[in-house]
Amino acid sequence: MNTKNIKRYAPQARTRFIETMTRQAARFGIAPGQRGEAEIAPVETRGDVMVITPKDGQTHTFPARLSGAREALAQWVKREGFTQAIEQAAYSWFNRLCAIRYMEIHGYLEHGRRVLSGANGEAGQAQILDECLEIDLPGLDSARVRELKLDGNQDETLYRELLLAQCHALHDAMPFLFEPLDDASELLLPNNLTKTDSLIRELVTEIPEEDWQDVEVIGWLYQFYISEKKDQVIGKVVKSEDIPAATQLFTPNWIVQYLVQNSVGRQWLQTYPDSPLKAEMPYYIEPAKQEPQVQAQLDAITPESIDPETIKVLDPACGSGHILVEAYNVLKAIYEERGFRTRDIPKLILENNLFGLDIDDRAAQLAGFALLMKAREDDRRIFSRGVRLNVLAMQSSQHLDARTLWRDLNLTGDWHQGQSQNLFESAQQDISTNDSTYQTIVDLIDRFQDAKTFGSLIEVPASFEEPLKTLLDELTELSNSGDTMQKTAAQQLAPIVQQAWVLAQRYDAVVANPPYMGSKGMNSYLKEFAKNHYPKSKADLFSIYVERCLRYGTHKAKLGLVTPYVWMFLATYTNLRERIVSEHTLVSLIQLEYNAFEPACIPVCSFQIDKHHVEGYVGSFISLSEFKGHQNQAPRTIEAIKNRSCGWFHTSKPDDFKKIPGSPIAYSIPDSLIQVFENNHTVSKYASPKHGITTGNNEAYIKSWHEVNFDNICFDAKNLDETLVRNEKWYPVVKGGAYRKWYGNHDLVLNYKYQGYDMKTKNAAGDNPGFRHDGKNYFFRKGGSWSYITSGPLSMRLFDEGFTFDHKGSGIFPKNDVCAEEIIAFFNSSVCKYILKILCPTLDYSGGPIGQVPYKNIKSESPSVSLVVRLALSPKSNPEGAAWSPCATLFRRT
To answer: For 394, what's the count of Cα atoms within 13 Å in the CB-facing half-sphere?
Structure first.
């Protein structure tokens, strides 16, 4: 598949669809207002004509039969806001046309004609228009079709009716994508659909047929369709309605295969190790050989047999369904191995095995469509089998009222319809409050008020599963056979109950590429929710989802996830790591190169977790960090799986990671270094790494030494109190800087008179909000400095008494009788460089990892270390000395 065509077309298509829908809305007297709300022109009905006169004074007339749809459109725009409603209409029609295009190319339309292109695939007059007299679609008036066709000048009107009839015909099979007949968005379908510059012509011409051969095209279309919206919102505090655009990322196919094959597939192979399924899974990683006691633990939790119909797989952030489609492939092979009839398998998988959730309606539409297309490959009658998919867009309950629904549903039969119902209302409300089903409805409406923001992070107790399934079945029955009030109420409540039922279940496999969003991007609602419900993983949405996915799983569940790889080592995610290696089992992990995702540059890893902890388990790890470019990741993974001696395949016991402070996922660390961590204290026992001051305005408070009056610089302060009585305003400060070992970068001074009085008072007044007075108790002490973010290895530099330091030039200060020169010598050694490469692979040398390095105090054993370091500081012996600035020599003050 050539994604370049899709990448070029889809963003332009989004703009065109929105612009076209906006113009169409204007024809019906609906336009954007001053503050985003809609301006809706009045409607006048004159006989069988509806007359609309917008503000521009240009009158438009329409058949009166459209008045209901126009009113529905007006209410929709009022409820959602003009911009949001038009956005929804645009992506709905984009999705529908893409779906029809895929189906016509694959021959899945029942009548066998092409709807968007010619009989041979050419752009131009559609085959359905040429052969309309031979087409039979539900609701299509054949007499009117013949009349319009014979007229010779009504092709535009005729084609519009044919296209809408096709959409209506697909409603029964795909109601999530093709809405009912009275769908207000039909009014926004533009005119001139047969013209050379129409939306349909562009779709046909811009993406060649060969790019439509795999259903994966649907995911790529969605990825690039929202790419411009993603660029607009990324890096900002994200509104709830923009969360999908900010967080959606299409997962490369090979990573999806790895995730599914090593979760769903591995579960099957553990019970049936001789299964032929193994040969069909190129990214399956055969578990490493385990010690007998470890194998005994694995045998104890491995079921003797598995019924394929009982395997439940969930993707809680399913996007366009890529993971679910791959899970379908693996499950299909499992069913076939067990001898199920081929035509029975698709419906069994869709109804029993696969579950997907997303907050984005358009994504869930495409996910459901993609699954049905996979099923259609195996069962040509799948559209008529009444399959109920378990792929849902989370819906808010804000518009629902429990008492009204309870009255209209009349589940107990106590509510008396008709004029006398008010006589019984009070008594029946008392009954309602004591009914368990009523209480469930009240609970669900309260629980899902913010479903479009929190999505599948919302928890529903597992004890709700059976009652919810019973209620869902009742609502389904009422939707089909209830009275008018029951049908309406059941259709309103059913989506809430169904999503609650999916959330209440526990799953054998949970597979996801969850959304990535740091706390800085979270809006206030999401941030508060994370703080209250996921306090230990609230730093990012992806880490919250890791915790949530673990809760979704059964006791023996298998998880497959792809996330940013920062959780493997950053201090922010220490709690998450410790939980994974202590309470669960990290089975395998692939660490990708920085640019392994197209089109995003996000450093990620893909990994497998067993919810059950197996002590002593040997995990498998693949490092692709040295193989640049996304095109190199898949073949190098295959090579590693086939040849474990390749050099980038590693085995390690996750339990050993607990022996390293912070439990980093240090899979390449040798046993000898693990023993070093076990047998020695860390640096933090002998020295204190500290972040320094954050001025809030470096331009105002930090200067080069030559920018200020030399006599106004204090070089010999010994403590904080001296700054309260000294006349000098400026004090030497170390602040990161260029790469230098041993000494240097002493050319800046800080306005620290009266302990930074000016910074503190402006901060208190709100004029300097970024100010933080960290590390002040270590000011003016002798120590070592380094740049906490750098493009290369850490370089430690000595500074003597009299210096302050800031947050980018962090300081480390010896304790008791430890010598500063020894600490600096150790951090500048090749041994420490090797250790830090494991602890800080992102080159973020913040205080946490620095303090976690194992250290042995050698002063008594090697008193010459300090002398060696001092000699290294001499310009005569240190070749870097020639590069020192004049002020560095001045500040050295020997």
So the answer is: 30
Reported confidence tier of residue 6, pLDDT bands at 50, 70, 90: very high
Task: State how far the Cα of 713 lies from the Cα of 465, in Å rounded to an integer.
Answer: 71
What CA dihedral angle connects 315, 317, 319 and 323, to 10 degrees? -30
Residue 241: other Cβ atoms inside 10 A: 18
How far apart, in Å, do the first and last CA atoms of the chain sit?
68
| pLDDT digit string, tens, across residues 846-860 | 756 788 889 887 654
Longest CA–CA separation in the chain, Å: 105
CA distance 732 to 885: 14
- Counting Cα atoms < 13 Å in the Cβ hemisphere of 421 gives 11
CB 613 within 8 A of CB 582: yes
Q: How far is CA 807 from the centre of its chain?
A: 31
Question: Is residue 879 pLDDT above 50, yes or no?
Answer: no
The Cα angle at residue 490 between residues 488 and 494, in degrees rounded to 5: 130
What domains does the chain contain, in order, with CATH numbers?
3-213 (no CATH), 243-394+507-665 (3.40.50.150), 402-447+462-494 (no CATH), 684-892 (3.90.220)
For the chain, give the mean pLDDT. 88
Tell me which residue has tokens 């019973």: 470
Q: Which residues contact 585 (CB under 8 A, 6 or more apart)?
A: 609, 610, 612, 613, 614, 617, 619, 654
Are 53 and 41 within 8 A, CB to CB? Answer: yes
Closest by CA position to 455, among listed 227, 248, 250 = 248
User: In angstroms, what CA-CA distances link 404 with 182, 246, 410, 428, 482?
Assistant: 24, 37, 10, 12, 16
The 3-state DSSP class for residue 616 equals coil
**Cα distance between residue 697 and residue 700, in whole Å:** 6
Q: What is the mean pLDDT of residues 569-573?
A: 87
Residue 113 CB neighbour total at 10 angstroms: 19
* Contact indicator for 594, 536 with CB cutoff of 8 Å: no
If you count them, how many residues does the chain have?
Answer: 894
- What percentage of residues in the chain have a pLDDT greater than 90? 62
Provide the phi-psi class of 889: left if phi over 0, else alpha when psi is between -120 and 50, else beta.
Answer: alpha
Task: State the DSSP H helix or E strand holding residue 143, giving kind and residue range, or none if neither.
Answer: helix 142-151
The larger pLDDT score, comparing residue 434 to residue 327, is at: 327
